[in-house]
Amino acid sequence: MRAEAACRVIAEVTGPGVGEEVVFAEATREMLRFGIGLRYPAIVMNSGPATLSWGPPRWTTRGEAPRVLARGDLMQSELMPLCGNQEIQVQMTVALDPIDEINRRCERVARASYEAGLKALRPGIAFADLVAAMVEPLKVAGCWSYTPLVHSVGPHFLAGRPRVNMEKIDLGVRFVGPPPERERKAVMKPGMVLAFEPNACLDRHRVNLGGTVLVTESGCEELNRIPTRVTHK
Questions:
Q1: pTM for this one?
Q2: Which of 50, 83, 181, 186 is in the most buried spot, having the most CB atoms within 10 Å?
Q3: DSSP class of 19
C-alpha cells in the first residue's frame, strides 16, 4: 500500500519542467508519512530519453543540479520501503509523451516479460524456470537486461539476471563473453515474496517496470498495479 501510494504521487507530480528533486521529495514524503523506513538510497532514480544509469540520483552524490524533465523523457525510479525490516520493491516509470519507438518497443517487451512471469509463477516451479519464462520475450525481441528480471525479497537471496543478447551491447567496452551464470536451484513455495522487475534494453534505451508478487497456494498474487505498467502523460 505504501509503495503503491508513492507510485500514485510520482504519476501525479511528474511532468515537463519538473525537477527530479521534486519527484524524489514527494515520493519520499508519501512513504515516510505512513511511519515506515526506507532502504538506502531510498529511491533509485534516473530520467531522460535514453539512459542506462541506475542508482542514487546523480545530484545526491555529485556537485550538479537535478535534471529538469522534458517531453520525450522517461522518469524511472525504484522504491524500497520497509517495515519491521521486511522490504518490498517496485519499479515506477512515467513516460512524458511522445517517447520514441525504441522506448515503446522496450516497454512492450518489459510488460510481456512481467506477464510471462505471472503466468509461470506457482508453487513447485524452480526459480530458474521462472527466470527462463521471463527472459523469453527479451530473447525474441533482441533485448538484454541491465538488472535482474526477478529476485526474492525479505530475505534477498535469489536474483535472476539473464545474459541473453549481451553480445549486442556496445558501450565502448570490448565484449569478451558473458560471465558464467549461477544456477539457482530454489523451488517456489507459498508465502515466498518476489520482486518482479523486468527491464528491457536496446542500445542505451532502457524501460523498467514491476512490483511485488506473492506466491500463493494455487499460483501468485500481484501486490501492486500502478508500477506494473508504464504511466503515459
A1: 0.90
A2: 50
A3: B
Structure confidence by residue, pLDDT tens digits, 165-189: 766 666 666 666 665 656 567 999 9
* pLDDT digit string, tens, across residues 125-139: 999 999 999 999 999
- Collapse the DSSP code of 227 into the 3-class scheme (helix H, G, I; strand E, B; otherwise coil) and give the result: helix
Please answer whether residues 82 and 103 qualify as being in contact, where contact means their C-beta atoms are separated by less than 8 angstroms.
no
Please list the alpha-helical segments (H only) found in the chain: 2-13, 20-32, 101-120, 127-141
CATH assignment of 2-232, given 3.90.230.10, 3.40.50.720, 3.40.50.2000, 3.40.1010.10? 3.90.230.10
Place of cell 501525479: 12
Task: Read off the DSSP letter of residue 22.
Answer: H
Residue 165 in grid coordinates: 543478447
Q: Are the C-beta atoms of 22 and 14 separated by less than 8 Å? A: no
What 3-state DSSP class applies to 40? strand
- Residue 207: which of 127, 129, 130, 114 has the closest Cα? 114
User: Are the CB atoms for 47 and 67 separated by under 8 Å?
Assistant: yes
CA 58 to chain centroid: 18
Give me the residues paired with residue 206 across strands.
201
- Residue appearing with cell numbers 515506515: 36
